[in-house]
């Protein structure tokens, strides 16, 4: 499952009051975030994690921030840190060396200690990236995944968080058998149930692909079967390049087929120049707008880490999937 080299970008719409935080006053929300929140169904299963925090969490250990810190003498380092490393970016979790409880609890706890809202990505379903092949892996069995995801949700507990569940998992069906598809749908349903049960202050979003992949009606059917009603809604454009406008339109079409207005978030990390029709490290892409509440969705987020390779392809033929490449990062900053 967006900017030039400008040094400053708008801060997210959060406001502090009496030691905790709430969203800005109703009059301001009417001009900014209300369009995103008004159409969604009434929230019944979770408190408002936005109102429980004072802004999105910036991970100082993200790959671009770490690279910039470790290569301070490189002339690209300051630009990468300013334009990417200092921004709120989701952290992706897979096996984490077998200690997923500690990794998740530590990350969410660090964010909570600063009164900030972390964005996490669950990316460990067995046979992930089955058809793309660049990011293969995941848990070794259905049972292992069920244990892992239940542990993940429990490690968040009552702390506020945003979670994107299994990017590409509902779009990556074309090379899978019918039995494998049903098995995957069952695992995703279990994941949504665990977040509903164990992480009451989390807004979780089941990934819904992107505007150029699966027809909205088909995606709506898959989301429904995978338990989207157990969570806040769905995510679109994760790790892709479609404009925010086209992504919002796609999500609206998915919602029309769902028959109710689920919440949705858009990954804007690399959509500043839109899509060229290529998905694996294409040239000429640009950073998109920063993480914020509203923007046509419930939230615009940087889900994909800008500068992390999609695989050994495109403008990074020698950089494995998930590895940070400063040359790719600079091209995203410049839009080249």
Topology:
Blueprint: E1 15-17, E2 20-22, H1 26-31, H2 34-37, H3 63-70, H4 77-85, E3 91-93, H5 100-113, E4 119-122, H6 142-156, E5 161-165, H7 178-198, E6 202-207, H8 216-225, E7 233-236, H9 244-258, E8 263-267, E9 292-293, E10 299-301, H10 326-334
Parallel strand pairs: 3-4, 4-5, 5-6, 6-7, 7-8, 8-10
Antiparallel strand pairs: 1-2, 9-10
Helix pairs in contact: 3-4, 4-10, 5-6, 6-7, 8-9
Keywords: Hydrolase
Protein name: Glycoside hydrolase family 6 protein
Organism: Streptomyces achmelvichensis
In short:
This is Glycoside hydrolase family 6 protein. This protein is an alpha/beta fold.
CATH superfamily: 1, 4-beta cellobiohydrolase
Strands of the largest sheet, in order across it? Answer: 3-4-5-6-7-8-10-9
CATH class: Alpha Beta
Strand content: 5-15%
Number of contiguous helices: 10
Question: What is the helix fraction of residues, given as a range?
Answer: 25-40%
How would the global form be characterised?
globular
- Overall domain count: 1
Report the C-alpha radius of gyration, rounded: 18 Å
Question: Runs with pLDDT <50, length 5+?
Answer: 1-45
Q: Would you report the number of β strands? A: 10
- Overall pLDDT confidence: 88
CATH architecture: Alpha-Beta Barrel
Question: What oligomeric arrangement do these chains adopt?
Answer: single chain
Keywords: Hydrolase
Protein name: Glycoside hydrolase family 6 protein
């Amino acid at each position: 499952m967006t900017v030039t080299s400008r040094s400053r970008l708008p801060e997210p719409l959060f406001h502090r009051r009496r030691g905790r935080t709430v969203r800005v006053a109703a009059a301001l929300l009417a001009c900014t975030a209300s369009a995103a929140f008004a159409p969604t169904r009434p929230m019944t299963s979770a408190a408002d994690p936005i109102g429980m925090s004072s802004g999105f969490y910036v991970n100082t250990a993200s790959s671009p921030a770490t690279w910039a810190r470790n290569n301070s003498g490189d002339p690209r380092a300051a630009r990468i840190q300013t334009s990417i490393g200092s921004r709120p970016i989701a952290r992706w979790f897979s096996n984490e060396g077998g200690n997923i409880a500690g990794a998740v609890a530590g990350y969410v706890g660090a964010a909570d200690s600063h009164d900030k809202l972390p964005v996490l990505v669950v990316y460990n379903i067995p046979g992930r990236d089955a058809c793309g092949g660049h990011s293969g892996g995941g848990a070794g069995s259905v049972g292992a995944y069920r244990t892992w995801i239940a542990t993940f949700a429990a490690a968040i507990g009552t702390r506020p968080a945003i979670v994107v569940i299994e990017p590409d998992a509902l779009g990556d069906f074309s090379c899978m058998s019918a039995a494998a598809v049903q098995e995957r749908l069952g695992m995703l349903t279990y994941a949504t149930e665990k977040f509903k049960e164990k992480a009451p202050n989390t807004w979780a979003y089941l990934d819904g692909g992107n505007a150029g992949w699966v027809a909205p009606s088909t995606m709506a059917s898959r989301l429904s079967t995978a338990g989207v009603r157990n969570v806040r809604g769905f995510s679109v454009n994760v790790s892709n390049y479609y404009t925010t406008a086209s992504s919002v339109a796609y999500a609206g079409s998915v919602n029309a087929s769902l028959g109710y207005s689920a919440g949705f978030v858009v990954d804007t990390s690399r959509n500043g120049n839109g899509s060229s029709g290529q998905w694996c490290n294409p040239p000429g892409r640009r950073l998109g707008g920063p993480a914020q509440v509203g923007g046509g969705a419930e939230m615009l987020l940087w889900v994909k880490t800008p500068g992390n390779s999609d695989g050994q392809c495109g403008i990074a033929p020698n950089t494995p999937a998930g590895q940070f490449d400063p040359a790719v990062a600079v091209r995203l900053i410049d839009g080249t």
